[in-house]
Amino acid sequence: MRVLVLGGTGFVGRYVVEGALARGHAVTVFHRGRSNPGLFPQAEHLIGDREADLSPLAGRIFDAVFDTTGFEVRHVRSAAATLAHPELQYVFVSSISVYAELAHLDESGPLRTTDDAENAILTLANYGALKAACEAAIDEELGRPALHVRAGLILGPHDYDERFRFWLDRVARGGEVLAPGDKTAIAQAIDVRDLAEWMLASATRKLTGPFNVTGEPLSMELLLDTVRDVVGGHGTFAWVPDEVLLAHDVKPYSEMPFWLPKNLGAAAVDIRKALAEGLTLRPFRETAHDAWEWMLSSWDADESVRSNRKIRVPAGMSTERERAILAAARAEAPPPAC
């Protein structure tokens, strides 16, 4: 196939490019030349900014496009309009954040909306709504459904997000570690390599429509125990109830990555549709191990990727804040029964 990757030198895109080259596809990478510009010399590189000028893509015909950097509707619509042709397989990296109801996380669930999505600027608050609007814009420009990959939290080597790094680093430091909420609460994430492999295989098979693509559910307790095993930490986990965390205005999924309080009514993300279409998932332990090994050896080398990302999600909390919340939790705990 003639493959175009919008992005391709950061995180998800680099694994799509790597996998496409390994499959023998002719790969073109369209990027700004700011993040890891020396990657993949065997691919064709077109330097440009999708938010300013798509002229390097004008008149080019591709069999498949992997859009890994689409966040704002007008830029996504422009790319789809520029590249559209009757046989194009358009693969858009969307998000499970498109869903309006955390209790209804299957592909039929209602989606978020925002005012004037066509012209809205990306923020943390409208991220999910804009991803949903981008999906609709692509389908409109193609005149048929694209493949919309509603990914969960994506982990693995070259992850420029700070959230999983926070847990790896914090648990490795040991001591008494604040563990958020209910230890049986559900956590889900997907390895970037499994995500990229499924997208490439699905493009070849010309799948279309929305698919939830994240990992199997695991408990928060298992997640943190696995992280401790992987990093060789010797700390203990102090499980602090949702009520204490909320009273101290702890931000779900950012200050405490993976944590969502029970009052939000979150359900497990339903991934049966993707599993039926060939999604395979490596053990979470392997993902955590590889992410940790990469973080120890190469985190600093990817600073250019982090500094050029479109949006940053705050992650983790200071040692002082963690200690204060742990002290408050101990003070509010009921006395032991006699």
List keywords for this structure.
single chain; 338 residues; alpha/beta; Rossmann fold; UDP-galactose 4-epimerase, domain 1; 2 domains; 7-stranded parallel sheet; two-stranded parallel sheet; 13 strands; 16% strand; globular
Assigned CATH class of the largest domain: Alpha Beta
What is the CATH fold-level name of the largest domain? Rossmann fold
| Binned strand content | 15-25%
Q: What does the overall shape look like?
A: globular
Count of individual beta strands: 13
**Mean pLDDT, as a whole number?**
94
Number of separate structural domains: 2
Helix fraction, binned, reads: 25-40%
Strand order of the largest sheet: 3-2-1-4-5-6-11
> Which structural class do the helices and strands define?
alpha/beta
How far apart, in Å, are the first and last alpha carbons?
71 Å
Largest sheet: 7 strands, parallel
Query: CATH superfamily name of the largest domain?
Result: NAD(P)-binding Rossmann-like Domain
- Return Rg in Å: 21 Å
Number of helices: 11
The CATH architecture classification of the largest domain is 3-Layer(aba) Sandwich
> Runs with pLDDT <50, length 5+?
none
* H-E order: EHEEEHEHEEHEEEHEEHEHHHHH
